[in-house]
Specification:
CATH architecture: 3-Layer(aba) Sandwich
Number of domains: 1
Number of helices: 8
Structural class: alpha/beta
Low-confidence stretches: none
CATH class: Alpha Beta
Strand content: 15-25%
CATH superfamily: Vaccinia Virus protein VP39
CATH topology: Rossmann fold
Helix content: 25-40%
Mean pLDDT: 91
Shape: globular
Number of strands: 7
Order of helices and strands: HHEHEHEHEHEHEEH
Length: 207
C-alpha cells in the first residue's frame, strides 16, 4: 500500500501540478453550475486542493478529502477563496462516510490511485454518498503510460467499458468525451465521464 505522507515528505508527487485540472475547467465551460446541484461537492484524493478551490471560486461549497495528513495541512495553508474545507479520511471507509451526503462528486486522482481490486468498493462509496439525481463527474486515466512501458502503478489504467460496468448498478451515464484541455503529457490519455445517480426505484427495477 502506498504511503502517501511519505510521498509528500520526499517530494515524490508527480500528480501535483500547482493548478486545477484543465479538464475540470473545460467542464465548467461546458455544463451549467446548476448541474452540480446545490452542493457540497466532494473531491476525494484532493491532494493540495486545487480542484476544491476551483469549485469554491465558481461559487459551490466543496469538501476536499485525502488520506495524507500532510496534503491536507498544505491544502489548508492556501488562502481561502470561498466555501471550501479539507478533511483527512479514507473515501472507502464507512467510518468516514456514514451520515454524509453530497450533491456531486468530482473524481480526478483518487480512482486511478487506489488498488484496482478496490474499485467496486469505490463505486459503492460514491453511490452511498450521493443524493438521488446526484452527479458523479470525473476525469479517468485510460492510458497513463506510453506503449511498452510496464510500470506497476499507480496510476492504474481503466477503460470506458469498465467504468460503465462498475457504475451501472446505481448510475446512468449522461455524457462522456476525451477532453480538449489537459496537463502537458496527458493529451488524449484521459476521458471525462458524467454519471447521474438513479432513483431508488430505478435501481430496484434494474437489480
Amino acid at each position: 500500500m502506498t504511503d502517501w505522507d511519505e510521498r509528500y515528505r520526499a517530494g515524490d508527487t508527480p500528480w501535483e501540478k500547482g493548478q486545477a485540472a484543465p479538464p475540470l475547467l473545460e467542464l465548467f465551460d461546458r455544463i451549467d453550475l446548476e448541474t452540480w446541484g446545490g452542493g457540497p461537492v466532494l473531491v476525494p484524493g484532493c491532494g493540495l486542493g486545487h480542484d476544491v478551490r476551483a469549485f469554491a471560486e465558481a461559487g459551490l461549497a466543496a469538501v476536499g478529502l485525502d488520506l495524507s495528513e500532510i496534503a491536507i495541512e498544505r491544502a489548508r495553508a492556501f488562502p481561502v477563496v470561498g466555501d471550501e474545507s479539507f478533511e483527512t479520511g479514507n473515501f472507502l471507509s464507512s467510518e468516514w462516510s456514514v451520515g454524509r451526503r453530497f450533491s456531486a462528486i468530482w473524481e480526478h486522482t483518487c480512482f486511478c490511485a487506489i488498488d484496482p481490486l478496490d474499485r467496486k468498493a469505490y463505486a459503492e462509496s460514491v453511490a452511498s454518498l450521493l443524493d438521488e439525481g446526484g452527479l458523479l463527474a470525473g476525469i479517468f486515466f485510460l492510458t497513463p503510460f506510453d506503449p511498452g512501458e510496464k510500470l506497476p502503478g499507480p496510476p492504474f489504467a481503466t477503460s470506458i467499458e469498465e467504468l460503465g460496468n462498475l457504475f451501472s448498478p446505481w448510475f446512468e451515464r449522461i455524457d462522456g468525451w476525451v477532453p480538449q484541455r489537459a496537463y502537458p503529457g496527458r493529451e488524449g490519455r484521459e476521458w471525462i465521464g458524467l454519471f447521474r445517480k438513479l432513483s431508488s426505484g430505478s435501481v430496484a427495477e434494474e437489480t
